[in-house]
Amino acid sequence: MTSPATPVEIGDPFTAPFGSLFGDQITIAKREAGGEYEYSGSAEQMENFSMHPATHALHYGSTCFEGLKAFRQQDGSLAIFRLDDHAARMTKTVAQLYMAVPDTELVKTMIIDAVEANAAYAPDSPGSLYIRPTLIGTQINIGAAATPSDSSMLFVFCSPVGDYFAGGVRPLTIHVETETPRTTPQFGRAKAGANYAMALGPTLDAKAAHGADQVLFASEGDITETGAANFFLVDDDRLITRELDDSFLHGVTRSSVLAIGADLGYRIEERHISLEELAEHAGRGEAFLSGTAAVIAPVGTLKLHGETVSVGDGQPGANTLKLRQALTDIQIGAAPDAHGWLTPVAG
Ligand SMILES: Cc1ncc(COP(=O)(O)O)c(C=O)c1O
């Protein structure tokens, strides 16, 4: 058994806004044009970056990231959840931005090193250490609008976090946006900064007009995902989510929920969900969001075609809570890691 590092107090992750507290160590690898990513092999003190005002990422959206978590285990040790899958997804996004793709092993090493160096900031469950690998284009040339950045920088830092949605596990209100898509169809799969900028307008409008916590993007009746999480329907028998294509982010939590759901005996359906089915399901079943930050977040109310539709009785449902518990138990080592999702790290 590893004994936990002495926690470092930088603020309370359970009351501070999600993502506003930071560990002080960072791992950085830089790649010059034509070269390889060069990493010193260890974390360093996190400082502000200094960059030329003409840096590519500041102008042309050459920026992408990942979001994963390290969990303090029940025995006090620390483990990263689904490291391989997040590193693999990051390299796919980088390729979509036409920047030099770092080796997946390098991404994983830099994540592990960053987590170990920031281990003292990892809160106990239900908190976690949120990990933010980021890759930006660093070419200095404002004429490079139509060319990818030929140099880049990969860095990984960490943020101790509590709940993503203020108020903990509570039923969310979701506005179903049937006109504006979250992003472009070919870019939905990329975890690129620009996608989040595109989702801002509809999200702010839905908050102002409908008091919504989040937007479910369903342009032309095609239910995909929310601004920062995937979307599920569940009842006592079936677990239903949109089938994968390039139009939305392939959530690692989504894939975990599907695997856990199958383990628990749910019938798994990955397919198109129509707005009619959504309304019908709301009358009798449950709905939830899934994501690294959101975990499994119950939906209590839908704002659909201007109507307020209660999902079930409007409260977190038994199936949603069962799946959430099963997921978080694996994440903290309270249930067997049957799928091999945890990577133990020092700390
Ligand atoms: C747009 C979007 N969809 C889905 C997800 C869920 O993905 P994951 O479960 O890998 O965190 C996220 C969160 O990262 C997201 O930003």
Key terms:
347 residues, alpha+beta, D-amino Acid Aminotransferase, Chain A, domain 1, D-amino Acid Aminotransferase, Chain A, domain 2, 2 domains, 9-stranded antiparallel β-sheet, 8-stranded mixed β-sheet, binds pyridoxal-5'-phosphate
Fold topology:
Blueprint: E1 25-31, E2 38-39, E3 44-45, H1 56-60, E4 63-65, E5 68-72, E6 78-81, H2 83-96, H3 104-117, E7 128-137, E8 152-161, E9 172-177, H4 193-210, E10 214-217, E11 230-234, E12 238-241, H5 252-263, E13 267-270, H6 275-282, E14 286-291, E15 295-304, E16 307-310, H7 318-331, E17 342-345
Parallel strand pairs: 9-10, 9-15, 12-13
Antiparallel strand pairs: 1-2, 1-3, 1-8, 4-7, 5-6, 5-7, 6-17, 7-8, 11-12, 11-14, 14-15, 15-16
Helix pairs in contact: 2-3, 5-7
The chain binds pyridoxal-5'-phosphate.
Care to describe what's here?
- With about 350 residues, this protein is α+β, with helices and mostly antiparallel strands.
- The protein has 2 domains: about 25-160, Aminotransferase class 4, branched-chain amino acid transferase, N-terminal domain (D-amino Acid Aminotransferase, Chain A, domain 1, 2-Layer Sandwich); about 170-330, D-amino Acid Aminotransferase, Chain A, domain 2 (Alpha-Beta Barrel), CATH 3.20.10.10.
- Helices cover about 25% and strands about 25% of the residues.
- The chain contains 7 helices and 17 strands.
- It has helices spanning about 55-60, 85-95, 105-115, 195-210, 250-265, 275-280, 320-330; strands at about 25-30, 40, 45, 65, 70, 80, 130-135, 150-160, 170-175, 215, 230-235, 240, 265-270, 285-290, 295-305, 305-310, 340-345.
- The strands form 2 sheets. Strands 1, 2, 3, 4, 5, 6, 7, 8 and 17 form a 9-stranded antiparallel β-sheet that branches. Strands 9, 10, 11, 12, 13, 14, 15 and 16 form an 8-stranded mixed β-sheet that branches.
- A hairpin with a 3-residue loop joins strand 14 and strand 15 (about 295-305).
- The longest helix is centred in the middle third of the chain and has 18 residues, at about 195-210.
- The model has no long low-confidence stretch (mean pLDDT about 95).
- The chain binds pyridoxal-5'-phosphate.
- Pyridoxal-5'-phosphate binds near residues 225 and 290.
